[in-house]
Amino acid sequence: MSSGYGQGGGYGSWDREEQTRQFAREEYEPPAPQRPAGPTVDAGRLWAAGVATAIVAALVAVVGTLVVRAFLRIAFNGPASSGVLGDERTILLCTLSAVAALAATGLAHLLLLSTPRPMTYLSWITGLVTVVVALLPLLGNAPLGERVANAVIHLIIGLVITSLVAGAGRAARRPR
């Protein structure tokens, strides 16, 4: 009964061939790639909402122009002889409103990818830009009614863009 170390049997023994066969049967799985920490952004969803926001912003500009020209009888975006839709300035307002919505969407995308609490920053940035854009018409030389109407329409467009893009940004954020 001489059982020594490495002689088989007992507590310290093992079969090297059996161990090799066991490891050979196991499949090798490479480690999963590590993803960066933080949420991801559903860019398609964000930009689809951005395009929808651009359309809404342009329509708000049209409706604002109609209300001011048809109901308030203020010669906004063109002389009174231009009709209820005004002149090319109405088209410019609609186009710039849509471009502002797309720019806000781009800013939201950038902030979602790079900052903590991105929608807070977006709301502050777009809110302050809205205030500036709403105050600028009040500094002009046009009649007071026209300046106030312009400022109110700019304010409403800015609020619409801010709220819709911030909501789209929250909806486009996916936790990991």
- Mean of residue pLDDT values: 86
Total of DSSP H or I helical runs spanning 4+ residues: 5
Q: What does the largest sheet look like?
A: 2 strands, antiparallel
Label the overall shape: elongated
**How many runs of DSSP E, i.e. beta strands?**
2
Derived structural class: mainly alpha
Residues in helix, %: 55-70%
What portion of the residues fall into strands of 2 or more residues? under 5%
Q: Please give the order of strands in the largest beta sheet.
A: 1-2
Q: How many domains, as an integer?
A: 1
Helix-strand pattern = HEHHHHE
> Which spans have pLDDT < 50 for at least 5 consecutive residues?
none
How far is the N terminus from the C terminus? 62 Å
Rg of Cα set: 32 Å
Descriptors:
176 residues, mainly alpha, two-stranded antiparallel ribbon, 2% strand, elongated
Layout of helices and strands:
Layout: H1 16-25, E1 40-41, H2 43-71, H3 88-114, H4 118-135, H5 144-172, E2 173-174
Antiparallel strand pairs: 1-2
Helix pairs in contact: 2-3, 2-5, 3-4, 3-5, 4-5
Structure commentary:
The structure is a single chain. The protein is mainly alpha-helical and 176 residues long. It has one domain. The chain has five helices and two strands; from the N terminus they run αβααααβ. A two-stranded antiparallel ribbon has the order 1-2. Helix 2 (43-71) runs antiparallel to helix 3, helix 2 runs antiparallel to helix 5 and helix 3 (88-114) packs parallel to helix 5 (144-172). The longest helix has 29 residues, at 43-71. The two termini are 62 Å apart.
